[in-house]
Amino acid sequence: MNSATLLLLLGVVVAVGMVLLNYGLTYSKAVYDAFANSPGDPATLREDPVERTWMLQSAVWTSIFALSIIAVMAYLYYLAKEEFK
Questions:
Q1: Residue 85's pLDDT is what?
Q2: Membrane-spanning regions, if any (predicted)?
């Protein structure tokens, strides 16, 4: 496994971790309590219209950022393959 493949896999792992953390903050009380300033109920995120809008925007921006990480890593992988032909 060369460094380009390792870099691409690392980018995918980071992106998947970001998406899972965002999901965990929304649906898991334990994850929510670990990252919140005070213990609360993550169901509030789904019931309050303002919080629901924030949650949707957060999920969309996290997904865009995760996909951009994967795209950059895939491009670097392509460049590395071209360089060492």
A1: 67
A2: 59-80
What's the pTM? 0.62
Residues in the chain: 85
User: Are 9 and 70 within 8 A, CB to CB?
Assistant: no
Nearest to 27 by CA among 13, 39, 45, 54: 45
The sign of the torsion formed by the CA atoms of 68, 72, 73, 77 equals positive
59-77: pLDDT as tens digits: 788 888 888 888 888 888 8
81 CB-near residues (< 8 Å, 6+ apart)? 4
∠ CA 82-84-85, nearest 5°, is 70
* Domain boundaries along the sequence of the chain: 3-83
